[in-house]
Amino acid sequence: MIKYILSQKVHLRSLIGIGFCFLIFLVGYYILGYISTEANPPFGDTIYILIGSTFMFTSIVVFVLILRYLYYYKKKKEKQHRKRKSHKLFYLRDVKKKGNSDSLNK
């Protein structure tokens, strides 16, 4: 599964990551909103509040990092394209093939 995800294009990987972040956010919201407000949940209320808050915070941070990566990836591609466009390749003439070898001797 991981090899399949890593073999995909950057935008598809980011969509998979954003979907995963959304799923983790929903799990954290469920833990924080429903399980921690029960009368006597196992392990106490505090642990569920901490776990739910951690899941929600982590998913938001990863979401922001994915968006930041996509933004800078696009900027990086545009910068590389501008560099390639401004520096056109040129080749030195092959003097021996054209028969102008006496122009070098001058």
Explained architecture:
The protein is built from 4 helices and no strands. With about 110 residues, the protein is mainly alpha-helical. The radius of gyration is 28 Å and the shape is rod-shaped. The mean pLDDT is about 80.
Please name the defining characteristics of this protein.
106 residues; mainly alpha
In summary, what is this structure?
The protein is mainly α. The protein is 73% helix and 0% strand.
Taking the alpha carbons of the first and last residues, their distance comes to 67 Å
Strand segment tally: 0
Could you say which structural class the secondary elements and strand pairing correspond to? mainly alpha
- The parts where pLDDT drops under 50 for at least 5 residues are none
Mean pLDDT reading? 78
Name the overall outline: rod-shaped
Order of helices and strands: HHHH
CA radius of gyration: 28 Å
Q: Count every helix, treating DSSP H or I runs of 4 or more residues as helices.
A: 4
Q: Please bin the fraction of helical residues.
A: over 70%
Percentage of residues in DSSP E strands: under 5%
Major sheet attributes: none
